[in-house]
Amino acid sequence: ICRRLDGLPLAIELAAARLRMLTPRQMADRLDDRFRLLTSGSRTALPRQQTLRAVVDWSWDLLDDAERAVLRRLSVFAGGCDLAAAEAVCGPEALEALGSLVDKSLVVAADPSGDGQMRYRLLETVAEYARERLLEAGEHDATLRAHLAHYRELARTTDPLLRGHRQLDAVGRLEAEYENLRTALRTAVAERDEQEALCLVLSLAWFWQIRGLRGEARQWSSAVLELGPDPFAPGAPAAVPLWERCTDRPPPLTGDLLQEARRGVHLVHLACMDMQGELQAWQNPAAQRKLRAIAGAYRPGMPQVCRNPGTLWFFAVLLTGQVERLREIVDAAVRTTTDRPDHAWEHALALQMRANLIANRPDWEGDAVADADRSLAICRRLGDVWSIAEGLCARGAANERHGRFEQAADDYRQAVEQVELLGAHAQRDVLRSRLGAVLLETDRPERGERLLREVITAGPLGDQEAGPAAR
Asked: Given this model, what pLDDT does residue 462 score?
């Protein structure tokens, strides 16, 4: 109760007075309506101190018009914002007004990450009051639109940084703003704004992958694919080769790019299914028809299936039992991206995919270790920590297949170190289960067993696939 009342002495005093008729649990449950709840102050107090609303009203009355405008617009942010976001959403007067609001203790300014970037947030009590004022002013919808536009652009322009030497900073930036990004997604879905929603999901898809946020990816892709027509339905426009990404420019998208964006969201949703809980649902006749339509929508080597989320197409191919097509698909992806400097990351990804396939299919020709090494060289040049880990994992699988268990263990160990830099705990557990399994084949089986048990006991905190693999 004290935390939700922001530690404000008057608010706590008013809450204490209510404990004569409410239990603490009842009190906590009703704090979303705190201005109606906390109205029983001392009769000997000044009028402005007798109710929570009165004390905030008093502070509001002392503000000028610019300060009031900024304060009420700040209420749309979730978890605070930086100065750029405040100026984009609250208007050009935000800088001066923020300074004044901080001085008056209505806005809290802090540098939580120590990176020199100040963030601004409202106390919960002030935020609730400011939201009421925003609605009264008739600015709620317009302010939410400005918030949506700002965070869509933040996601769209940060996404490319997730594939290079600025990856760690980009992950940190998206994590710091994730509650605002979710608010933007909610706004787009609630307003049935397909264009904005498509851009947000496609811009966040790789971040969700890196951070192991499969549930988030599934939830939002499911909501967004309902906003437009099914791009894989009979009679839908056929896919054409596209070098341009759907997020290379802000919305609106038209023509082939719009159709490809819709396909991309469907692919994100397919790839993020709960393999234990949802796989059975894809076995019914209608779902199988949908999978066959997805599997037949593209030709191997089309540019868009050489990058995320187009690479997820192979899930549909796999789930329809067309395993032999996978080799054709990855070989074509390697050819398409060869000697294209602007698609070096995509080339590394294609090499990784081929290395993994060859490592798991000893009947297929090819050198998985060589492919993994080529991929690693590219990823190290780009500075992509996540993809370095994936390349090491692919090489580890190849070494394991050939009985080179010590080399495989070293590859998996290095991969674990890389994903720990990113805080990618779900992928870390997958890699630790692989490391544990391969250590069983070396002269350190007790270390391998200990690792596997640690992954199993991680329970809900670990990855949903790592635990079963470790068992």
From this structure: 46
Residue 147 near residue 77, CB atoms below 8 Å: yes
80, amino acid identity: G
Integer CA distances (angstroms), 158 to 62, 176, 207, 390, 425, in order: 39, 13, 10, 21, 22
Whether 376 is in a domain gets the answer no
CA dihedral 333, 334, 340, 345 (to 10 degrees): 80
Q: Are 395 and 367 in contact (CB under 8 A)?
A: no
Length of the chain equals 471
Among 6-10, 143-147, 265-269, the minimum mean pLDDT is found in 6-10
Pairwise CA distance, residues 365 & 331, whole Å: 12
Residue range of the domain that includes 51: 9-60
164-212 residue pLDDT tens: 999 999 999 999 999 999 999 999 999 999 999 999 999 999 999 999 8
* CA distance linking residue 287 with residue 269, whole number of Å: 13
* DSSP bridge partners of 109: 120
| 18 domain-assigned | yes
What's the DSSP call for residue 444?
Answer: -
Tokens 């600025």 found at: 166
Q: Are 396 and 411 spatial neighbours (Cβ–Cβ below 8 Å)?
A: yes
Query: What is the DSSP track for 338-406?
Result: TT-GGGHHHHHHHHHHHHHHHHH-TTS-S-HHHHHHHHHHHHHHHT-HHHHHHHHHHHHHHHHHTT-HH
**DSSP class per residue in 20-47:** TTS-HHHHHHTGGGHHHH-----TTS-G
Residue 300 covered by a domain: no
DSSP state of 301: T
User: CA-CA distance, 316 to 263, in Å (whole number)?
Assistant: 12
* CA neighbours closer than 13 Å in the CB half-sphere of residue 143: 23
How many angstroms from the chain centroid is the CA of residue 87?
A: 24
Report phi then psi at 267, rounded to 5. Answer: -70, -40
Query: Could you tell me the two tokens for 191?
Result: 């307003």
**Is residue 46 domain-resident?**
yes
What CA–CA distance (Å, rounded) separates 283 from 182?
A: 32
Residue 284 pLDDT class (50, 70, 90 cuts): confident
**In whole angstroms, what is the distance from residue 242 CA to residue 262 CA?**
14
Average of per-residue pLDDT values in the chain: 89
Compute the chain's Rg from CA coordinates: 26
> What are the C-alpha distances in Å from 457 to residues 198, 466, 471?
38, 11, 10
Contact 85, 150 (CB under 8 A): yes
Q: Report the number of distinct structural domains present in the chain.
A: 1
Return all residues near 446 (Cβ < 8 A) that are at least 6 apart: none
- The answer to whether 308 touches 205, Cβ cutoff 8 Å, is yes
